[in-house]
Amino acid sequence: MLIIGIAGGTGSGKSTVVKKILELLPEDEVAIIPQDSYYRDNKGLSAEVKKELNFDHPDSIEWDLLVKQIMDLKEDKAVQQPIYSYITCERDEQTVPVTPKNVLIVEGIMVLTYPPLRDLMTVKVFVDAEADDRLSRVLMRDTVERGRDAFTVLDRYQKTVKPMHLQFIEPSKRYADLIVPQGGNNRVAIEMLASIIHRHLEQKAVR
User: Fold this and answer.
1) CA dist 154 to 36, 137, 146, 161, 169, Å?
2) What is the rounded average pLDDT of the residues 76-88?
3) Of 3, 5, 52, 104, which sits 20 to 30 A from 154 (CA to CA)?
4) Is residue 84 within 8 Å of 38, Cβ to Cβ?
5) Which whole-number Å values give the CA distances from 197 to 2, 3, 106, in the listed order?
6) What is the mean pLDDT of residues 90-98?
7) What's the rounded mean pLDDT across residues 153-169?
């Protein structure tokens, strides 16, 4: 199994990169594991406490479960991926079945920060973007998709997103095999990644 890790700051364009890679590949050959599905469940916490949760610190992720499910997929076992809601800050009772594929893309802001996960990756990618570009995307996404007001988004950005990016996410860039500036607009990098995947699929086909 070819495992590609795609990291980068919040709002850097990781999801767009993944989407554009998939557009260049055969259907049903790639499984996607988003880091965001593995945020720890916060059932039982009050609304006030949930407002202060730091989603940009590595401790917010249930890494053991994420690594175990990736190892299961490598061993040709299907897994039940959690569903996490940013609205409730809780996991859903339901899960998403993920079946093993020839290629697995693991995407999320911190996927290069955790050594046991990083060690499973064949190719490590960091999607890079200017801070002001990331902030504008975060502001638009969180107000439209997650029901937050602009003041809350900007306050959270200053208190947690920016400092956590500088402490954990930006330093993980040094582990990347490929750095992709301009996110989904970097056609050359996207075609390069798609070419790597195509080559892997061709090699699997002749075995």
Assistant:
1) 20, 12, 14, 9, 19
2) 93
3) 5
4) yes
5) 8, 10, 14
6) 93
7) 88
d(Cα 148, Cα 10) in Å, to the nearest integer?
16
Rounded Cα distance between 98 and 88, Å, is 24
30-34 vs 2-8, strand pairing mode: unpaired
Domains of the chain: 2-199 (3.40.50.300)
- pLDDT tens digits along 122-159: 999 999 988 777 777 777 777 776 667 777 778 788 88
Give a three-class secondary structure readout of 25-57: CCCCCEEEEEHHHHECCCCCCCHHHHHCCCCCC
**56 has which bridge partners?**
none
Is 87 in contact with 51 (CB distance < 8 Å)?
no
Of the candidates 33, 18, 30, 201, the residue with the CA atom closest to the CA atom of residue 101: 30
Q: What is the mean pLDDT of residues 30-54?
A: 90
* Residue indicated by tokens 């086909």: 205
Residue 141 contacts residue 13 (beta carbons within 8 Å): no
Q: What is the pLDDT of residue 123?
A: 95
DSSP code string of 72-122 = HHHTT--EEEEEEETTTTEEEEEEEEE---SEEEEE-TTTTT-HHHHTT-S
